[in-house]
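Memo to structure team: turn this sequence into structure tokens by end of day. - J.P.
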Amino acid sequence: MIHNRPLSLTALLIFPLSLLTSCNLSEGLDVTDVDIPDGYELSAGTSTIFMNSSKAYDSPADWVSGSYATRFIRGDKLYDDMRTSESGYGGGLGPVYAGFSCGSCHSNAGRTKPAGWSDGGSGPYGFSAQLVYITSRTGAQFREYGRVLHDQAIYGVKPEGKLRVDWRYESFTFPDGTPYELAAPTYTITDWYDREFNPDDLICTVRIPLRHVGMGQMMALDQTEIEALAARSNYPEYGISGRCNYISERGVTSLGVSGNKAQHADLTVELGFSSDMGCTNSRYPEEICEGQVQINQGSMMGLLYDRLDVSTEDMENVDLYMQSLGVPARRNVGDPEVRRGEQMFYEARCHLCHVATLHTRPRGSTLLNGTQLPWLGNQTIHPYSDFLLHDMGSEIMGVGLNDNYPSGLAMGNEWRTTPLWGIGLQEKVNAHTYFLHDGRARNLTEAIMWHGGEGYASRQLFARMNASDRAALIRFLESL
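Reply from structure team:
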């Protein structure tokens, strides 16, 4: 393995298979369906699970038992169950929304295939598996719409608008003569519910769902280690210099680690219920469509109830479910091609941002209503991310990855380093290989070749490899 400078953290753990115990929630599932070689990397300490199936993202860690197992099941049910506009348990959908459940966008706790590819924009079946963010060129939100364009609505209400995605394709050639292609999206909003905005005054950016892999470990990160990485992650020879995003919410400033731009300090369960599904809760008690003419003056007023749509207890069960999910172990690490691909990963300097090894703080994480998860504490984990912001916005195909949409301290050209654990199982879990924030990359090679800004050096190092070495690097990523 080649490094341009010494690494202070160990990247490989050997863990005896005899110490693994089967969780009672996994009865009926084959939890040993990975061909485990003599040595393998334990992705998330005690939360590592050994699965290679469509449930690899959606199974509990082995430590989940007792009352936590009961709450895990409740959270799982609420995460997956389709909400309706009816009153009662599971109700509260809308009136406008983006998805009808957490699981509608995060199928099997992963990434549902985005409608930008399957339907050319907004999906016709009650969800689009993508969020559409809009703002004016000045950065101000449109009063009638807020930060998210809700492209779905319950019966009797108009969606706020519909997204149309047009794809432009361009062919390229690697230095060794191997061809590849990139696809760049153009976003257009149609069917505005109220007034239409001048495209010249509109910024529109799209987010497809993130994989919910390693959420608990992310919430339990030793944040001093992340800040230390920011202090020393300056590699001028490669144009790399990561920085932290700090978020101020409810009078508290916190380190952002969650979201495409590290724009959140938590898993945004309460925000997701409110903004994505239109479900009021204790943190967001107002309807997201409050103030819209069609709601205030229309027949929908009779469907808006005084009580909150989802309780704090239920939301914490969803938070517990997400943080208690197991993280799939690496696979095929004894394969010579995977080993060579790992060397190529380091030779391309991918590890300078996709940091292999981090640690969690001693006490683990705390859920949104105060429940402690100490099992997540004092763990050595391998997320392949530094959780820092990096400039990725150099123009490629005339657009690059600058979406002109700031989040907290993050500018439009800055993105959080995406954790790579579990990435090799996405096709098995969700039956597609769309990557990056808006799904424009149709495979891992395209994802790498979209790297601009601070990722440009790694992109070029990858491009200059021969076809065999590039394939090995992709094979390594598929083992994560």
